[in-house]
Fold:
Amino acid sequence: MDDRIQHKDLTNLKKKDQPIIIFKVVREAEAILNACREMGIVVTAFCDYEKRNTEKNFCGLEVIHTPDLPGRFKKARIIISSQYVSDSIDQLSELGYSEFYSPLKLLENYDVNKYKHQISNSYMKTQITSCTNAHKAYLDGNKIFMRSLDVMITTKCSMKCESCSNLMQYYKDPQNSDFQKILNEVNVITDQVDEISEFRVIGGEPMMNKEWAKICYGLIKDNPERKVYVWTNGTVGPKEEQLELLKGKDINFVITDYGQFSRNIENLKEKLTKYNLAYVATEVRNWVDCSSMRKHERTAQELQEVYKQCCAKYLYTLLDGKLFSCPFIANAAKLKAISDNPANYVDLYSDVEIIKKRIKRLVGGVKFLPGCDFCDGRPYDATSAKGYDGKGMIPAAIQTSEVLPYKTYK
Structure:
């Protein structure tokens, strides 16, 4: 049990002596705000480390850039909406805050059908479940908990972004992963962990794998309570029979809208609505520059700082029978751009006891990984992160006509 965050007594949140801040701007934060208002809790503002989230109001309230929060409010009571609970508390503690609240009690009786949210109510219900699962696991402390598992089903992509953080721009011979092999490997992981809050089917572009719908169906066939998300760039129009297989299932689609490049996005939305499949579409015009692979020769202390600030270190990634902590190391290893170091991953075809021990270490017992030395960094706040070697925020989805070259390190 972690005593840094309160989750039962919300009495102090109703007091008017300090501002109430919700950290951070995630989709379920809208539900948390509604629940606060139902309980007579007056929220002053949101705050977020991502600068782009502060460019406009959220649900009618100001969004403050987190580093600027102490200058605005020296003291504040903070409700953690983020599913990365430990990181959130660590970041805010460094700014001098000490009074944190979990949204568990706020959301326990929340009726999604009472409101019209910015996303569909079915999608909001899924987000709330993921949020509460993450907070419960954090408060328990004894569970092997994964906030998400990226099930990477292909390295093929319908776009060729020169600064893709998942490194698709470097693949000369992209391949699809085998349907049954993926499901078998997922089962190996789930047999050794207490809970995975959500499964994210990704690529490349996952719909480039013709078996993408079968994989999604396989993930929930015997486990209908699982939360499955398909991350797509809106370029591929799925076939009717693929969506028919998933009709009415708890499969959620996250559509990244790249404007002119997402040429099938409206067709995709229409089809998903037709088959009663929840989706959310988000415009992306800029992203963090974090696609270079190079050896930095960082000290252990410097690597710890890069890992500490990384926003992708909990994007556990399944690729080629191995479980990695993030998609960068997973794809850098597959490309053989970095040396094969067993400390970077869990081999899912090793002994069962070894698998469980190594998953536990990967999920909760590392301060950095050897592969981190080849990454420029992927910080929560690319504008002011220490040790970040990228160029900050850059235009998203700039296309390259050729596969990009890269150096290999042994």
The chain has two domains: 5-138, 143-395. The chain has twelve helices and 18 strands. The two ends are 42 Å apart (CA to CA).
